[in-house]
Amino acid sequence: MRTAFGVEREAESYDLTIRHLDNDGKPTGKGYTAIDGRDRDYYQEFADAKDGEITVRLPAGGYALTGILDADGESDAPDSFLLAPALRLTKDTTVVMDAREAKPTRITVPDAGAENHHAQLIPGYTRSDGQPLGFMPPIFDFPDFQSFKVGHIGPEAPKEAAYAQYSGFWTRQPADGRAVNYRLAWNRTGSLGGFTADVRREQLAEIDFAAGRPGPEPTAQVAVMPLTPIGEFAADFSTPTQRQLPLRTSEYVLGNGVKWTYQVHQWESGNSQLGRFTAYQPKKSYTEQFNVGVFGPLLPPGEGEPRWGRPGIARSGNTIKAHLPMFGDSDGHESSGDFTELESSLRADGKEIPAEGDPLNIAEYTVPAGDGRYELSVDASRDPGLHAVSTRVRARWTFRSAGVSGDSWARLPLSVVRFSPVLSMTSTAKAGERFQVPFTVEGTATARTAEKLEFEVSYDDGRTWTTARAVNGTHLSLNHPAQPGTVSLRAKLTDRDGNTLVQTIDRAYLTVR
Q1: What is the pTM of this model?
Q2: Do the beta carbons of residue 351 and residue 372 sit within 8 Å?
Q3: Which of 162, 397, 409, 441 has the CB geometry, 3.0–4.6 Å to 157, for a possible disulfide?
């Protein structure tokens, strides 16, 4: 008699033992270690409540470990983070996550009256092929930098393979009510442990920040976020409270190459303005104004596939994808989520093309392969009870498009007109005065290359329209009626290739005495 049997050969694997030690060097079960695989998809958290020692068998290869030890209410004792970004498992190995190896981070700002109200740690790793591990990095936030300490375990990883982003928020409330805020961030590579920094005034950029109140909603949340070295960003926990509008603050940002973005969110109206990521330069002054009209369409410079943070319309093969914010503010900040009614359509040689999604968010259309004449129309309205200005914005474009070979995305020849007058923080101007309305043509055309660029204005909510005089291709010269009311704006554009735009903004701004 014969008996068949088989042997399943284990891939090269080894035991990894992790020990957790507290601030006294004793074994502790009050912590855990997260293990990320750098050569393969792998993530797991390990803990042992008894003595803090665990053993796991893993395939040979590269791993990144993040150990977290909870101080568990010890008097003034901070939590400890132990980062081992470059573990190569080639034999049975023991890693000790020892809280005594973690070092505090001590940071001072050049303002004795400013208090540290928030600190954040983001450890991040990449795979061996350079791609991020996971969709979002882990975010650990604290009330201040005294609440945690960080240690580096084992060898350093190459700078493109691991980082630890430290960020913090300091604020001072002067007697005049205008807050002075300090926002500092470091994208540390190499040794990832705690550090000391005495920040000097000449290392900072100064930002005059303002957020308007264009409607009756009295408050907004201001979120300010740094970007990680590999392009990830996370929620801002430093200023989560609602702020009274209009708002103006003095901001100081560390000018060390880290990119920052400001955002303004009004939850009742659904009005959000999303800023651009900017690396502010030390010893330079900036102005960041949000949530002030005229609110209208945006088409900032950009390439590739449209997505959140990268508005536009583009084609790849027989797919057209559109992301066309219709309520961006006068400084060109992208808007999201604040319309109550929307009608849109795309036609190819007169035939309507079904849409998946909507163009204010993301819309996709499957279109004929050949060259054709297209007409895209978007008509979006907002609740006038929540929005006093730009209550309705509509645009109609005509353009030609043919198939795009390969997987690349080619931007389509659309243009918009962005108006940026100097308005009050409630999006108003003086009635009975001559008034200039600067404008910028965004997208394929410019004010100088457009074959035709005409404007109209209405002072009676769009019932009647008159020609508005454009001066030097840079601004409109208007005469506001003496009676307070509304100002609506319309632009008509034809570029050199015959592509057209008709854009109308109802109640672009208000006039007051």
Answers
A1: 0.89
A2: no
A3: 162
